[in-house]
Amino acid sequence: MLDLHALTAQDLRGLSPEAMAKLAEQMLRHIGEQAKAIKFKDVKIERITFELARLKANRFGAKTERMNAEQRQMFEEALAEDQASLEAQLQALQGRTSAPPADDKVKRKPRRQALPDHLRRIEYRHEPDSTTCKCGQAMVRIGEDITEKLDIVPAEFFVHRHVRGKWACKCCQTLAQEPVEPQVIDKGMPAAGLVAHTLVSRFVDHIPYYRQEEINARSGVHTPRSTLAAWSGAGGAELQPLYDVHREFVLATHIVHADETPVNMLDPGAGKTKKAYVWAYARSAFDASPGVAYEFCVGRGAQYPIAFLDDWSGTLIRDEYKGYESVLKLHDRKAAGCLAHARRKFDELIKDNKSPVATQAIQRIAWIYKIERELQGLTAEERWAQRQARAKPLWEALFAWLTLERARVPDGSGTAKALDYSLNHWDALTANLDDGGVPVDNNHLENQMRPWAMGRKT
Hints:
alpha/beta, 7 strands, 16 helices
């Protein structure tokens, strides 16, 4: 093989026609190899740039997937509820409407809602000191005006003082006394209400124990954080039977959502925290009797959902975390995917480089979501029939389009990864077409997990 880089003009003039043909063939092959190498590098650069932008967005950007104004304009057909707003904006830009003069503007006041009826009300009567007119005649009451002011009594500590009398018979030498009522913490200081308040403050309002200690101190009550933690542990143990019953209720349906989120766990002796997980399981978003159960686990392995679900069988709505593969192999379980996760892959591409493929994918997915919003109030049977008639053609068209676009984009690119995610998990994504009770995504449970994400910041 000739060394193309070592050839000179004199060498080329001395070559025969056959040698020139071979040289041309070699040069074309060399150019093709260089083109492939350049294309590979371009794809790699594009993928790395996308991943970098995604990481920056996760760290510094807004944590939302809402469409921006430009996306709304592109998808106004799918987002019918925005049509009136867009038309008004268009008319304003075209000068069809004019703002009223400053003097004619009417300042809109926020509409005050009535105070809830269940609140305790303290009534005050206000009457004039005298109901006799200056002319000497007695006045007649013709009506009244009522105004209501909302007030609050801050949390108040108080003491339950139990006095148990002792009664003795001097003749029989016997003693009679009422037994002590069962308590959450036997021989402990806190009543059940204080234990419940501590649990709710920590795990619902996400107030750390050290802040609860400071809050209680303002009322002159000393409750060290270690004491509060001990109360919570004892309260949690007493709630275990109720939790077991609630778990059975959550699993008493053939459609269950599953998800997990990381939380920090103290590592005694190490002087730092380590990662643990809160797993969540919920009844279907369409279930008339909602329910969600949380389970704290020290890891993310498949053994935790396997143990929680036990012998449950049905459709499990989850993301594509590999740990669920072992879970789904047991007890005749079926996988249902999350369309929101598939959409998220394309949304990241749009935020990075305005990918036209991602833009069209978002639009096609929006058409499916538009139908789902219209089917919210239907029964499972009615929803299944509507999906078969209206949504199934959109799903089929989406699959054909994804397949076509995948053949056009190079392997390893961000667009290819987004397309592969949907194509590789297509059966799970379309499980909702076989059962009207299966939602198209896992957003119902992800919304139930948001408080845990808030708690991580405290």
